[in-house]
Design a protein that fits this description.
alpha/beta; Nucleotidyltransferase, domain 5; Hexokinase, domain 1; 6-stranded mixed sheet; 5-stranded mixed sheet; 12 helices; 14 strands
Length: about 325
């Protein structure tokens, strides 16, 4: 048995995998609200139960940087240590950045789990870039060594937001005043980021808001989901404007990552948000932002861009890493 996990600021998903005819098969899976638990180990104890199975390997994708086999999670008060977990589970353990795990998982997904946003054809080799907006913004690279892909995590989501239009210039000023300093791209390109964009449009009176929609958003437990719903339905012009800005910024940042890594093998757009707003991403704002890079537009037109629909990609990547640790 192998234990895999996807540890995020909103939820933690754990799964047990077994081998069947050489392939990994999920035997058990459960999701837990992360913030309702003081420690990651508490969730593991609940999941494994009173009689935990013998494990041959364990791996966890974690929202945060892994340094010296240890991670202090970005959006949770948790500390995960590989050495301590190895003692606890009596098996090899590997911590992965969540986007590193997602990137590895994407390598094992069938073609039907991807939807193309561009006209470029996907290459079977070459550097690839992975970007995923969710609770935060994750970025990773997949580099080709001539035989197979290797995942390289980054903390690119915490780089500075670079506006590309007058509206985005004003958004940066607004967010700088809100935060009192540095504005990372994650502050506008994430679940909370969509709400920040909407608040900017509301507070600077950029468009007439539907009163009922505004009230629903302001009292919603998940205001970004409410904004997305009104935007996709076309029931509120300000929500539509917010989503168009979000999609354009998403595309621009995906292109930044592609250019910095020369990702001629393609860009994969993952995370929990992209599949939910796919109709908006397909409307053109994402690719407008992606291609709007002046002299390098021609190069970017040759790079395939695909939305990954499978939300369990980080879990799948962690499971394959856990298996590799046992060399089974």
């Amino acid at each position: 048995m192998f234990l895999a996990g996807d540890i995020g600021g909103t939820k933690t998903v754990l799964a047990l995998y077994s081998l069947h005819e050489g392939a990994l098969v999920c035997a058990k899976e459960a999701s837990f609200p992360s913030r309702e638990h003081a420690r990651f180990e508490d969730i593991v104890d609940i999941f494994l139960g009173a009689h935990p199975p013998a494990l041959h390997g364990a791996s966890f994708g974690v929202a945060g940087p892994i340094v010296d086999r240890r991670c202090i999670t970005t959006n949770l008060p948790w500390v995960l240590d590989e050495c301590e977990l190895e003692v606890r589970f009596d098996c090899p353990v590997r911590l992965l950045n969540d986007l590193e795990a997602a990137a590895l998982g994407m390598l094992h997904l069938p073609a039907e789990q991807r939807v193309s946003l561009s006209n470029a054809r996907r290459s079977k080799s070459g550097m690839m870039a992975v970007i995923a907006a969710g609770t935060g913004l994750g970025e990773a690279l997949l580099f080709w060594d001539g035989t197979r892909y290797h995942a390289q995590p980054t903390e690119g989501g915490h780089c500075s937001f670079a506006p590309t239009s007058a509206d985005e210039d004003a958004l940066l000023d607004y967010m700088r005043n809100q935060l009192g300093g540095h504005v990372s791209i994650e502050r506008v390109l994430s679940g909370p980021g969509l709400f920040n964009i909407w608040r900017f449009l509301r507070d600077t009176e950029r468009g007439a808001m539907d009163a009922a929609a505004m009230q629903a958003i302001e009292i919603a437990a998940d205001p970004s989901a409410e904004i997305a719903m009104h935007a996709i339905a076309g029931s509120d012009p300000v929500c539509v404007h917010a989503m168009e800005m979000f999609a354009h910024i998403y595309g621009a940042e995906a292109a930044n990552l592609a250019l910095k890594s020369l990702a001629i093998g393609g860009v994969l757009v993952g995370g929990g948000i992209a599949p939910k707003i796919l109709p908006f991403l397909q409307r053109g704002a994402f690719m407008d932002g992606f291609l709007n890079k002046g002299r390098f537009r021609g190069l970017l037109e040759t790079i395939p861009v695909e939305v990954v629909l499978e939300p369990r990609a980080p879990l799948i990547g962690a499971a394959h890493m856990a298996r590799s640790l046992a060399q089974v």
